[in-house]
Write a structure and sequence with these properties.
By secondary structure, this protein is α+β, with helices and mostly antiparallel strands. The chain folds into 2 domains: 13-187 and 263-378, LCP protein (Aminopeptidase, 3-Layer(aba) Sandwich), CATH 3.40.630.190; 190-243, no CATH class. The chain contains 13 helices and 16 strands. The chain has helices at 24-36, 40-53, 139-142, 150-165, 177-187, 219-229, 245-253, 262-281, 284-287, 290-301, 314-320, 354-364, 368-374; strands spanning 55-57, 80-88, 99-108, 115-119, 125-128, 132-135, 171-175, 190-194, 198-206, 209-212, 233-236, 239-243, 304-307, 329-332, 341-344, 347-350. A hairpin with a 2-residue loop joins strand 9 and strand 10. Helix 1 (24-36) runs antiparallel to helix 2 (40-53). Mean pLDDT is 81; it is low at 1-38. Keywords: Membrane, Transmembrane, Transmembrane helix. InterPro entries: LytR/CpsA/Psr_CW_biosynth, LytR_CpsA_psr. It comes from Catellatospora methionotrophica.
Length: 384
C-alpha cells in the first residue's frame, strides 16, 4: 500500500484549502464491481491505481473512546458506520491548525439496502480527549501535533465523535478540498441545483471573469472588498445546471444564504454535491472510459487518508461496498435543520436537541428506518 505522503506538514498547504465530503468513498466498491462485469483488463488497471493511491492509517484509529478494541474485517458484514471528515486549511496556515469543518457520519443498515448521511454541526461543544471542552470541529486539530499529522487528527476526531454520538465506527476517512476539485475535474462536471441567487464570499468578478480572492471570512468583509475594488461578488444564479469544479465547490462552501439557513444550508448543499458526484461517477460514460476511471480513483485516493478494520485490505473494503450503488442515500438534518445555539461566556456553541440525540442512538442500534418514520421532518428532501 502506498505510503508516499505521511499526511504531515511536508504536504504543501496550498494543496489543501477548504472542506467538503465524500460518499464517493462508499461508491468505489460498486464502481469496481460494475467494471468487473465489463472488462477484467480494466478492473486490474483500476485496482492497481487504487492500491497505489490510497494512504492508510492504522486500525487503532477506530478504537473506542473508552479503550474498546478496533473492529475486525467481519464488522462490515452487518450494519456499519463510517466517519468522514473534510478539513479546512488555507495557504500559509500552520500545519497543526487544520480543523474539520465538515463532519459526516454514513450509516449502512444491516441489510445493506439502506444508507443514511448525518452531519455533525461544527459548533457542537464536546469534551476532546486530553484537551477539555471545545467545538467539535477542533477535535481533528487537537490531535494533529506540531507536525500536522493527519493520523493523529483522525484518531482524536473519531474518538470525540464516537463519545458524542454513541456510535462506534468501522471505518473513517479524511479528505481535503483539493481532492474534491481533482475528482470533479476528472468527472468533467457535476449537475447542481441552486434554490435562490446566492452571492459568493470567495469568488469575485474581476475583469469580467470569476476569480478566487483569499482571506475573506464573511459577507461583511466580502462587501467591503467590493467597495474597495469595485469587483462585485460572483452570483450563483437560481436553477439547475452542469457546474465545473470551481463553481460547484464554491457554491457548496457558502453559508451566507438567502434563506438564512447558514451552516445547515451549507450542509444541505454539500450533501447535494456528494450525491451529484456519485451520480456522475457511476454513469456509463465514466465507467466505460479506463482513463477517466483511473483519473477519478487516483484523484480521490491521493487526497484521502483511510482507516479500516483490522486485517482488511483497501481493495477488500471497496468490494465490500459493492451493493451500495443501487441504494438511495437518505440525507438527515441534525436538529431538523434548526440552529440550537447557546453561549459559554462570550463564545457561541451549538447543542444537539433531544431528537438529534435519539437519531444518533437509532443509528447505533441500526434503527434509523424507524426513526425517520417517527420524525420525517429530519429527512433532508432538498439534498438531491
Amino acid at each position: 500500500m502506498s505510503q508516499r505522503h505521511p499526511r504531515t506538514s511536508a504536504k504543501p498547504a496550498a494543496r489543501r484549502k477548504a472542506p467538503l465530503w465524500a460518499k464517493l468513498v462508499l461508491t468505489f466498491g460498486a464502481v469496481l464491481m460494475m467494471i468487473a462485469g465489463t472488462s477484467m483488463v480494466l478492473l486490474r488497471s483500476v485496482v492497481g491505481t487504487l492500491e497505489e493511491s490510497v494512504d492508510l492509517a492504522g486500525s487503532d484509529v477506530l478504537a473506542g473512546p473508552s479503550g474498546q478494541a478496533a473492529p475486525d474485517a467481519k464488522a462490515l458484514r452487518g450494519a456499519f458506520d463510517v466517519l468522514l471528515l473534510g478539513i479546512d486549511t488555507r495557504p500559509g496556515q500552520k500545519a497543526d491548525d487544520a480543523r474539520s469543518d465538515t463532519i459526516i457520519i454514513v450509516h449502512v443498515s444491516g441489510t445493506h439496502r439502506e444508507a443514511y448521511l448525518m452531519s455533525v454541526p461544527r459548533d457542537v461543544r464536546v469534551e476532546i480527549p486530553g484537551k477539555g471542552y471545545r467545538k467539535v470541529n477542533g477535535a481533528f486539530q487537537a490531535g494533529l501535533g506540531p507536525q500536522g499529522d493527519w493520523r493523529g487528527g483522525l484518531k482524536t476526531a473519531t474518538q470525540t465523535v464516537s463519545k458524542l454520538t454513541g456510535i462506534t465506527f468501522e471505518a473513517a476517512a479524511v479528505i481535503d478540498f483539493g481532492g474534491f476539485n481533482k475528482i470533479i475535474e476528472a468527472l468533467g462536471s457535476v449537475r447542481m441545483c441552486v434554490e435562490a441567487d446566492t452571492k459568493s464570499i470567495h469568488h469575485f468578478v474581476v475583469k469580467g471573469k470569476p476569480k478566487y480572492i483569499g482571506g475573506i471570512a464573511d459577507a461583511t468583509e466580502a462587501d467591503q472588498y467590493t467597495d474597495r475594488t469595485g469587483n462585485k461578488r460572483f452570483v450563483h444564479r437560481k436553477g439547475c445546471r452542469d457546474m465545473q469544479a470551481w463553481e460547484a465547490l464554491d457554491f457548496a462552501r457558502q453559508r451566507y444564504l438567502p434563506d438564512g439557513s447558514a451552516d445547515y444550508g451549507r450542509q444541505r448543499h454539500q450533501q447535494q454535491l456528494i450525491q451529484a458526484m456519485v451520480s456522475k461517477a457511476t454513469s456509463a460514460g465514466v465507467l466505460t472510459d479506463i482513463g477517466k476511471v483511473n483519473d477519478l480513483i487516483r484523484a480521490a485516493g491521493e487526497s484521502m487518508l483511510l482507516s479500516l478494520p483490522q486485517g482488511m485490505e483497501v481493495i477488500d473494503f471497496f468490494f465490500a461496498l459493492q451493493d451500495l450503488a443501487a441504494v438511495d442515500l437518505v440525507s438527515l438534518k441534525t436538529n431538523a435543520g434548526w440552529y440550537n445555539g447557546y453561549k459559554v461566556g462570550n463564545e457561541s456553541f451549538e447543542d444537539l436537541n433531544d431528537k438529534s440525540k435519539l437519531m444518533f442512538k437509532a443509528a447505533s442500534l441500526d434503527k434509523l428506518g424507524e426513526f425517520t418514520a417517527l420524525y420525517p421532518e429530519f429527512i433532508n428532501r432538498k439534498a438531491g
